[in-house]
Design brief:
With 193 residues, the protein is of the alpha+beta class. It contains 6 helices and 5 strands. Strands 1, 2, 3, 4 and 5 form a 5-stranded antiparallel β-sheet that branches. The longest helix has 21 residues, at 113-133.
């Protein structure tokens, strides 16, 4: 494997918001290939806790409408914001696919939940790096009803399962923004010898 190619893919991965996508459809075969990359994430005890409901084609609109309706049905009237409802309803209009990022607890309760969440996060990173290598735009969102019991129920998840985010995939015509880090690496590591 060429380190420089891998480095380029990692350092060029970006969060591209769904409204910056252009509506062009990604072939389902490419989405399947990305999910196969996700499936190679590290997992303690081979629990493989990732679970990815995938919405493509017209199902993207149905999911976004359902998400907006969950917000409307589960938000007290005094806290309901019409703009939030509209954003949830239209957020996927220009995305090709929407993948809900879920952690399903396995039958090994001795494995801490944080390790299961970390495994799913690794799976998402695999998917995202694959998308970057293919020139696709990706966005990991966690707004709206993502963490609500209503979303878990909508997805038929169990009590110990969790929704970790909603991943939008598509193409963009916009230039990929420059990467940046706000803190120098030296503040985030400590060498000892």
């Amino acid at each position: 494997m060429d380190f420089e190619q891998l480095k380029s893919i990692i350092t060029n991965r970006r969060n591209i918001k769904p409204f910056a996508m252009n509506g062009k459809q990604i072939p389902d075969e490419q989405i399947q290939a990305l999910l196969e990359l996700a499936d190679w994430a590290p997992t303690h005890g081979y629990t493989e806790p990732w679970y990815f409901p995938v919405f493509g084609g017209e199902a993207v609109k149905r999911f976004c409408t359902a998400h907006a309706e969950l917000y409307k049905a589960n938000t007290p009237p005094e806290k309901f914001i019409l703009g939030n409802y509209e954003k949830l309803k239209t957020q996927g209009d220009l995305a090709s696919h929407v993948i809900v990022l879920c952690m399903k607890r396995g039958n090994k309760p001795g494995i801490p939940e944080i390790e299961e969440i970390a495994a799913v996060s690794c799976a998402v990173q695999n998917l995202w790096l694959g998308a970057t290598a293919l020139g696709l735009a990706g966005y990991w969102g966690s707004g709206g009803m993502t963490f609500s019991p209503a979303m878990k129920e909508y997805l038929s998840l169990g009590e110990e399962d969790k929704v970790l985010g909603i991943f939008y995939l598509g193409y963009t015509d916009e230039p990929i923004p420059e990467g940046r880090r706000l803190k120098p690496l030296s503040e985030k590591i400590k060498w000892e010898k």
